[in-house]
């Protein structure tokens, strides 16, 4: 009798050890940014919110994995992923050829064009000649840095750590214009009081070399199981309506594929 | 060549291709560092004299300045000037805004100057307070006036004795100048972060920057070693190696 209890206890202990071991391994750490509204920002109480954040959470739920969100500054995002600070990035990261040499991507979960924002009365043109000699702000390590340097060779490219800083210096007049995702500019700046005197310059910037195929979930190179799991989960939440629910709380149109209306 | 280098963890070709940018960064770093050291140093001399004096009003005022600027991080000071000052309408409308505070370079220079000025003031104050009594007594005995004692005896003597500690301040300032890269300036680290951002790299830009800083620090320490030899010789009476006074090991004649 005693022996049997002991055995059972030992088995239980072993099981518990196994379970906690598995659980610890199961916790998926996801790198997010927290300074890229409306995709990723902080609420007044310091908690993370935004489209990326909610998409990350429902993808985890869809994959039935325990998730932990890890905040990371943008220009250290890929190094941190490679250094195993987290296992995936859900931070509006565009799928590009250059990034694919460093990391792997799931299928896209949204795609919006980039546009240039300048003061309403600037009279600037969003072209290589139009921005020659002008100071153009972009976020460091973003696809916009790549695009700006390739397509606005005569502009002075000014680099910032966060998109918030780009908008702030635009309002302070330290830069003449800024290049970013059109949605980011619309929701995070132009629709707010501080962005009232600013507008998009005509023209979408969508070149595939820098901007790639859209925004995907990034994983370490060769982590195919996780990559496929994310792709499948993205398809699943597109199909079951979860994506639409989240999309509609942030945007007046579907940002998955098409071009936003009225922009 | 490409195949030969492919085993190497760093993309050396990219670094070589963009090396002219790094040289530009070296210029920005050296310019900011040494200009702020010169301005801060010039500012520190009179302030240190005040701090070493017992002036009832000026001494506490300078003390507050050095306490504030030594008590807060350089990054915070620079951010407050660059992002903080611009939040106020009256600052943006003032004459200071357009040529000065709207420019990242000026914000960095002002913050760096005030910071190194505070440290150098306290460093010099210590050297002045430590002036050997005999030097001052000798000056009094030879009938040198009070002002002459300060400018011809106390200060030169303090400058010399402050050289070793000041070499640390110069190196700290060089390292502190990386703060410039956080307010969009393309100093050495700024170029390194640009490279990392442009090609989505983890190390190349940072390691190149580290090597460049290392080389500059090496040159600075060399200069200070020469300065110390030249100006502190009179303090080095015990230049004889200590080992020479020790008896030779057993069996050695």
From TrEMBL, chain A:
Keywords: Periplasm, Signal, Transport. SUPFAM superfamilies: Periplasmic binding protein-like II. CDD domains: PBP2_HisJ_LAO. Residues 27-254 form the Solute-binding protein family 3/N-terminal domain. Residues 1-24 form the signal peptide. Its main location: periplasm. It is found in: Periplasm. It holds the Pfam family SBP_bac_3. Belongs to the bacterial solute-binding protein 3 family. PANTHER family: ARGININE-BINDING EXTRACELLULAR PROTEIN ARTP, MEMBRANE-BOUND LYTIC MUREIN TRANSGLYCOSYLASE F. This is ABC transporter substrate-binding protein. It comes from Paracoccus fontiphilus.
TrEMBL record, chain B:
It holds the Pfam family BPD_transp_1. Keywords: Cell inner membrane, Cell membrane, Membrane, Transmembrane, Transmembrane helix, Transport. InterPro entries: AA_ABC_transptr_permease_3TM, ArtM/GltK/GlnP/TcyL/YhdX-like, MetI-like, MetI-like_sf. It is a multi-pass membrane protein. Belongs to the binding-protein-dependent transport system permease family. HisMQ subfamily. PROSITE patterns: ABC_TM1. It is found in: Cell inner membrane; Cell membrane. It comes from the Bacteria. The keyword Ribonucleoprotein does not apply. The chain crosses the membrane at residues 22-50, 62-83, 103-124, 170-189, 201-224. Residues 26-224 form the ABC transmembrane type-1 domain. It comes from Paracoccus fontiphilus. The keyword Transmembrane applies. This is ABC transporter permease.
């Amino acid at each position: 009798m005693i022996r049997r209890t002991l055995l059972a206890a030992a088995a239980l202990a072993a099981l518990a050890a196994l379970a906690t071991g598995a659980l610890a391994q199961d916790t998926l750490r996801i790198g997010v940014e927290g300074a890229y509204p409306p995709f990723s920002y902080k609420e007044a109480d310091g908690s993370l919110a935004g489209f990326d954040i909610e998409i990350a959470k429902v993808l985890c739920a869809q994959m039935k994995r325990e998730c932990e969100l890890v905040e990371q500054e943008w220009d250290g995002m890929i190094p941190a992923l490679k250094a195993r600070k987290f296992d995936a990035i859900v931070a509006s990261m565009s799928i590009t050829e250059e990034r694919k040499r460093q990391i792997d991507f799931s299928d896209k979960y949204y795609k919006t064009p980039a546009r240039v924002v300048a003061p309403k009365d600037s009279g600037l043109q969003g072209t290589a000649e139009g921005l020659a000699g002008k100071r153009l702000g972009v976020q460091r390590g973003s696809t916009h840095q790549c695009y700006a340097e390739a397509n606005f060779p005569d502009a002075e490219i000014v680099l910032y750590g966060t998109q918030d800083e780009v908008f702030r210096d635009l309002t302070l007049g330290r830069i003449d214009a800024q290049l970013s995702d059109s949605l980011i500019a619309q929701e995070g700046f132009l629709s707010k009081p501080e962005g009232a005197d600013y507008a998009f310059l005509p023209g979408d910037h969508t070149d595939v070399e820098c901007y790639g195929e859209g925004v995907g979930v990034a994983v370490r190179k060769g982590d195919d199981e996780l990559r496929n799991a994310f792709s499948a989960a993205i398809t699943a939440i597109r199909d079951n309506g979860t994506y639409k629910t989240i999309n509609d709380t942030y945007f007046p149109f579907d940002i998955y594929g098409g071009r936003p209306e009225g922009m | 060549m490409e195949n030969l280098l492919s085993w190497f963890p760093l993309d050396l070709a990219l670094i070589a291709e963009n090396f002219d940018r790094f040289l530009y960064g070296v210029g920005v770093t050296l310019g900011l560092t040494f200009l702020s050291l010169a301005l801060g140093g010039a500012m520190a001399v009179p302030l240190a004299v005040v701090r070493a004096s017992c002036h009832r009003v000026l001494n506490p005022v300078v003390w507050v300045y050095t306490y504030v600027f030594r008590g807060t991080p350089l990054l915070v000071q620079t951010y407050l000037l660059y992002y903080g000052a611009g939040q106020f309408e009256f600052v943006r409308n003032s004459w200071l805004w357009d040529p000065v505070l709207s420019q990242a370079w000026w914000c960095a220079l002002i913050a760096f100057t005030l910071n190194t000025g505070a440290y150098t003031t306290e460093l010099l104050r210590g050297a002045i307070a430590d002036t050997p009594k005999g030097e001052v007594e000798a000056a009094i005995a030879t009938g040198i006036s009070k002002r002459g004692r300060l400018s011809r005896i106390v200060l030169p003597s303090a400058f010399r004795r402050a050289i070793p500690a000041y070499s640390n301040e110069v190196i700290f300032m060089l390292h502190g100048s990386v703060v410039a890269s956080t307010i969009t300036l393309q100093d050495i680290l700024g170029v390194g972060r640009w490279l990392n951002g442009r090609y989505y790299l983890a190390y190349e830009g940072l390691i190149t920057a580290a090597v460049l800083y290392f080389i500059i620090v090496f040159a600075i320490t060399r200069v200070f070693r020469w300065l110390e030899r030249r100006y502190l010789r009179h303090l080095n009476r015990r230049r004889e190696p200590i080992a020479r006074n020790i008896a030779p090991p057993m069996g050695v004649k």
